[in-house]
Write a structure and sequence with these properties.
451 residues; 26 strands; mainly beta; nine-stranded mixed beta sheet; eight-stranded antiparallel beta sheet; Immunoglobulin-like
């Protein structure tokens, strides 16, 4: 038994089209992959009061939320006859990844000099972290490219710029800048097709044909994500004295690895429905019965298409030459019926066997063989040849039916053995005897008259 093959490659289809497996093809199906993942959610960072022990300190609390969405487009193809070969081809430059996250930064300040002590939240703001990238699907191993990156280097955000007078002639100030950096990478990990894993370009997967009007192919794509979000805080503490000038007490760069993600996630299952031709049920065999030599028996065999794609093929008969079929080519659209006529016209006496062969684009049964049986005898002197089967019911069970589906019909035509000389031959002796009896009577009357 042959099984369907599932191929994945950006260039597979162009090569596969020249393969014998693509002699017959279904209608191409659009393929759309879309998924959303959460990134950096519920990640928090608290600097505490910095610098520690300073009379003037600041505290930053940062929380991140966000995610990323990826979308890819492709086309699904299905061909046969050597099983069902399925190729999922990407459409170049249709891959897109969008990263959309947000930071919430809260700034608090504390002042503690001698008898003065005070602290308060002085700023709360949101910072967008966004990025976008375009690529060609599906980013599997062997694809070019195999990975897509989205890099975000945000502008420096001034979270705080505040100054106050400590006492006469002396003032202090604090400024804080925040610079976010984010890197997100995405790559295709593998497919699952009816539970079977497909990792690389050109690798085959097997699915079982259903023999239905639509072949359902379920494909699950797995994406691999790696993402990091880093922050750089730059607090500057400044003191200014009249007539002296200003100088920085503290000028720090504080790297903050806020969040990171490394995981795999299934895309929603993609279901492709490929229309296929399906040949209707046919008799497993047919027996013409006993036929007079010189006569013909004809089997009208309807070929019904139960599928959703045109059914077409060729018919031929193998075996004894007294069997024949017409026409050689048949075609039936979806939910329609065509047919062939099988004839048996014996030219000699005996038992005969043949094989009706139907070769079609039905992927489940591309070749269907129906054995043919028949017997022939010469005409006897009786009006009815002994053993002649005049019933239209055959061993194949193709008798007339009241159902809606077309049924095979048998038609018998006599082309010889008219027996037209039998009746006159049997009547000739009776006429001659009457003539002789009449003549004898005339002669007797003449003799009596003379006497």
């Amino acid at each position: 038994m042959s099984f369907p093959i599932l191929l994945f490659a950006g260039t597979t289809m162009a090569v596969a089209q020249d393969d014998a497996r693509w002699e017959h093809q279904s209608e191409s199906q659009d393929l759309l992959l879309r998924d959303y993942v959460e990134l950096w959610n519920d990640s928090e960072f608290d600097t505490g009061w910095v610098p520690s022990g300073s009379p003037l300190a600041v505290r930053f609390q940062i929380e991140s939320t966000g995610g990323a969405e990826v979308e890819m487009e492709g086309v699904g193809h299905m061909g046969w006859p050597d099983g069902l070969t399925v190729a999922l081809d990407p459409i170049a430059d249709t891959g897109e990844i969008i990263v959309d996250a947000a930071l919430e930064a809260v700034t608090s300040i504390k002042f503690d000099v001698d008898v003065y002590s005070w602290e308060s939240e002085i700023d709360r703001r949101g910072i967008d972290v966004e990025g976008q990238g375009l690529f060609s699907p599906f980013l599997l191993q062997g694809d070019v490219p195999e990975v897509v990156e989205v890099l975000f280097e945000g502008d420096t955000n001034e979270l705080l710029n505040w100054s106050f007078q400590v006492f006469t002639g002396v003032s202090a100030g604090i400024s804080v800048d925040l610079g976010p950096e984010a890197l997100t990478t995405f790559t295709g990990e593998n497919w699952y097709v009816d539970g079977e894993r497909v990792d690389t370009v050109g690798q085959e997967a097997w699915v079982e044909p259903l023999g239905e009007a639509y072949q359902e192919v379920n494909a699950e794509f797995i994406g691999s994500w790696n993402s990091s979000l880093d922050l750089v805080l730059n607090p500057v503490f400044e003191v200014c004295v009249d007539l002296v000038g200003c100088w920085d007490l503290v000028d720090l760069d504080l790297p903050i690895p806020l969040a990171s993600d490394d995981f795999e996630q299934f895309f929603p299952t993609t279901t492709l429905l490929f229309p296929l031709p399906v040949m209707g049920e046919l008799p497993p065999r047919h027996d013409f019965g006993t036929i007079d030599v010189g006569s013909s028996a004809v089997l009208q065999l309807p070929i019904e298409n139960l599928g959703a794609l045109d059914l077409e093929g060729y018919s031929l008969v193998e075996g004894d030459p007294y069997f024949s079929v017409y026409p050689e080519y048949f075609q039936a659209g979806p939910a329609r019926t065509d047919g062939v006529v099988v004839s048996f016209t014996p030219g000699a006496e005996g038992d005969f066997e043949g094989m009706l062969v139907l070769q079609s684009n039905d992927p489940l049964e591309p070749v269907l063989e129906i054995p043919l049986l028949a017997s022939a005898q010469y005409v006897t002197t009786d009006n009815t040849s002994p053993g002649t089967n005049t019933d239209t019911t055959s061993e194949s069970g193709t008798e007339a039916s009241n159902g809606s589906r077309p049924q095979p019909q048998i038609v018998r035509t006599q082309t010889g053995g008219c027996n037209c000389s039998s009746a006159p031959a049997r009547g000739a002796p009776t006429g001659l005897l009457a003539f002789l009896v009449g003549g004898v009577a005339v002669l007797r009357r003449r003799r009596s008259h003379r006497i």
